[in-house]
């Protein structure tokens, strides 16, 4: 090895792990919020002190490209519901999921629920998130919002549950009763996409609960991401051939966001790979935070 | 006497910790729900201290003391049996989850918690035999019941919710209160009289 190469490797090793510059920091009622910038990449990080976790990043040069695998994966639901007219996103983060929806479907009605008002202002101030005539953010608990939507008879074509990525797991959003309320506000031909846990004991409990309420679902995982995305709908799931066809039709439409839709159908499995004897999570029994090892 | 003070402290915090879980399906898991619960518990306890202190002026005895435990157990039953029936109309009537959770907390938790609050001053009165010991006795009882509260908090949030359903834990608390009442009655009986007169400021 040439000494100059070694030197540059060493330099790289020394500089690479160095975190970017912190451009904003605040402590909200729910979490510590940090915004960091590293070159053109800007990241929203929750709870820095416990295992650095990039919640959302954007590339300021190409803000429409989705930086994270799991955000891109949230759009796999398009394979089942290609033209949603009403969309619900629970959990704002940096706002990249709702903004992509808004860009893709400017005429769709998009409701975003976020419990933490500080996250809403950070998304607006640092992550180019904007409410539009068709896209509104509601500062509310997802359970309360969804229960009320159900009572008012509102329905959605595409529901994304993405409220599980922080440090604390909202246990009331993991239960059978909650999923039944979600089912009530989903249109018969709509799709549910839930970003959930792929590790720890919770995986089994959660899978058992989803299976109980939805009968079957796609387990969607990619080697590049630690997340497991659950994709399902009311009634039977379509045959895989339909997914592949839909991916072919939609691939161009989502290409600019960096969503590799064509790769997705092969990764969506209905195989049971969890311990089915685990206890279902209910409003009476939901110790999610204690089940996460 | 110390053991029953432990039980009341334990049950207060067990119910309080579960309160957030009981209300989350209707009012969410936001900080304001905790705010509602803690406010209601504090106010109910404050009222209980006042009432318990006042009742202790009139012929303090084991029977009345035991009845606090029994009635706290009975008034905890609606939390187990009718929680949904109580919260649903409140959820429908009150749009703002802050006030909804406050109202629901008042309806479900204020009565049993007030009754549990009455125990502390009343037990001081039962135990104090000489005026110069009153501070020491009060200190001991607060010590025991507060340690009970700490145990109830920890046990509930670390272990019970992992092992049992919410309602089963609440049934456990109800049972513990009834057992405490039985202990008081037996102890009072063994001391000779259920209307155990306490030496003190009788005129």
Describe the structure in your own words.
The complex is a heterodimer of chains A (293) and B (203). Chain A is of the alpha/beta class. Chain A has helices at 3-15, 69-73, 96-104, 117-126, 142-151, 176-184, 202-214, 240-254, 288-291, and strands at residues 21-27, 32-38, 41-46, 54-59, 86-90, 109-114, 135-139, 156-161, 186-196, 218-221, 228-232, 268-269. Mean pLDDT of chain A is 88; it is low at 12-18. Chain B is built from seven helices and no strands. Helices cover 83% and strands 0% of the residues of chain B. With 203 residues, chain B is an all-alpha fold. Chain A binds chain B through residues 29-30, 115, 140-144, 147-148, 151, 170-172, 175, 177-178, 282-287, 290-291, and chain B through 21, 24-31, 91-92, 97, 158, 161-162, 164-167.
Outline of the structure:
Chain A has 293 residues and is α/β, with parallel strands linked by helices. Helices cover 30% and strands 24% of the residues of chain A.
Q: Nearest-angstrom radius of gyration of chain B? A: 18 Å
Strand composition percent of chain A: 15-25%
Structural class of chain A: alpha/beta
Rg of chain A, Å, rounded:
19 Å
Q: How much helical structure, as a percent, in the residues of chain A? A: 25-40%
Strand/helix succession of chain B: HHHHHHH
Poorly predicted runs of 5 or more residues of chain B: 198-203
Question: Which pair has the most extensive contact?
Answer: A-B, 25 and 19 residues
Q: How many strands, what sense, and barrel or not for the largest sheet of chain A?
A: 8 strands, mixed
What is the overall pLDDT average of chain B?
92
> Could you tell me the number of beta strands of chain A?
12
Strand line-up across the major sheet of chain A:
7-6-5-8-9-11-10-12
Mean pLDDT of chain A: 88
Helix and strand element order of chain A: HEEEEHEHEHEHEHEHEEHEH
